[in-house]
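Exam revision sheet. Question 4 asks you to relate a sequence to its structure. Input first:
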Amino acid sequence: MKFFTLLMFSLLTSACSQQEVYSSKAVSKSVHSKTIIEAAALSYDGQLNVIVNNDGVCLWQNKQPSSTPKCLSATHAQHIEIAYISMNNEFFYLSNRVSVKKYAINNFQIVGEWQVADNIINDLSVSNNGQLLLLGFRSGKASIIDTHTNKVTTYQKHRLDINAVSLSADGQIAFTGSSDKKALLWHTATGETIFELDHATRVNHVDISADGLVGFSIDAVKDRKFWNLKTGELIAELDTYLKFMEINASAFSDDNSLFLTGSPRQVLQLWRVVDGALLAQWQSSMEYGRASVLSVAIHEASTEASTTTKSAKSIIATNSDGVLEQWHFPVN
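Answer key, structure tokens:
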């Protein structure tokens, strides 16, 4: 009886501490691969989708789901594990973890390639115009590559491997997370550290807003934090009872008020930055197996009457089954 009473109290307390979470069915769904894919990347606005599988590399226009994608042959897809699209939608990047290739979206031609001798790439990020490329290595080093001049500058930023990197839109500020239990904010021009943010365990994922003002970092066990990157102070932590949480992909809204995450377990969640509250949750579809969310985007739609009035946000995700889905989330 005592155990039952305690259990009921625990359940009631848990339920009362969580606000109602919005959910909805997908408003659109497209399957972009007949097999499990190796890598995927959505553009910042969610309008482009790069898919890498054994058949090749294909770029889909999400505004025209029935259109034929542009594709590269299977040779371009060999051993590719990381894909990325520049924020201005002019370039995409593919990496096999020992090199990076830059492609022009308008003609699908390679416009640059960089080898990284004696280093393994764990993650990459790109500035808005596609010029600056940030690479995070297992050695704890990070490289800034100017893809116009081919200048490569490498810094020893962490003691252990860098697991995640994120670059501000202008390319001036980098945010890196490492197994040394630290997330570092630093100047890409000089390598000078701005803030050193300590965590309980290894930092597995970081993200920085386009304007470089807000950051997010998550470690392997309990730290899931939003940061004011002007002051280095904590804004909030994710309001969740999960003891273990993984994030594959994330995105800030344009105004930095919302934060979207995608997990290896098909789940997408939308969080409020100011207090870490969970506002919405969706389930990604499976085609061939458990579909890990690989890339996410938030696209703000305008009303039909006015292009300046925002009415809803579109939540967009691609998973490892090659499924692209879209959900609507009301702004208010």
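Marking note for examiners. The radius of gyration is 20 Å.
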